[in-house]
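TA notes, week 10

Several of you asked for a full example with nothing omitted. So below is the full record: structure tokens for the whole chain, then the designed sequence directly under it. When grading your own attempts, check the secondary structure regions first.
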């Protein structure tokens, strides 16, 4: 006998993504700590609301997408190539690669998928800034 599973409706996921887009908009003049604080509040509420649903894979995908949105905001905050290079070097990227990526003509969303940003602005970086993982919250509710 099959056990029925509760799933999150597509409209609910669409609404969640719209809210995350609004909270991680590049045009908002919020500091990164304020943005993460607001994002954590909303995500923890959402996870509590949909804890009974089978959302493990959804939470993993959303975690990655949220971090990419935050990388985009961070890249936008570092406006000038000089600031981008300085911040990348500060995060441990070799000067040559930092110069190369700081002067890239690629748009914000495209740059966030680069290996340089994925490795420097990784999970531990966001954990230090206070970003809570949706997947870890979901897992802690289940156990």
């Amino acid at each position: 006998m099959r056990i029925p599973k509760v799933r999150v409706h597509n409209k609910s996921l669409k609404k969640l993504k719209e809210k995350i887009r609004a909270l991680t908009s590049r045009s908002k003049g919020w500091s990164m700590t304020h943005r993460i604080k607001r994002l954590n509040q909303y995500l923890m509420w959402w996870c509590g609301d949909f804890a009974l649903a089978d959302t493990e894979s959804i939470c993993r995908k959303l975690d990655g997408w949220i971090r990419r949105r935050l990388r985009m905001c961070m890249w936008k905050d570092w406006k000038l190539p000089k600031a981008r290079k300085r911040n990348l070097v500060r995060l441990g990227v070799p000067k040559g690669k930092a110069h190369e990526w700081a002067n890239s003509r690629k748009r914000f969303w495209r740059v966030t998928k680069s290996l340089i940003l994925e490795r420097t602005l990784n999970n531990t970086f966001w954990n230090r800034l206070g970003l809570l993982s949706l997947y870890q919250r979901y897992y802690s509710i289940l156990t």
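The chain has nine helices and no strands. Use that as a sanity check on your answer.
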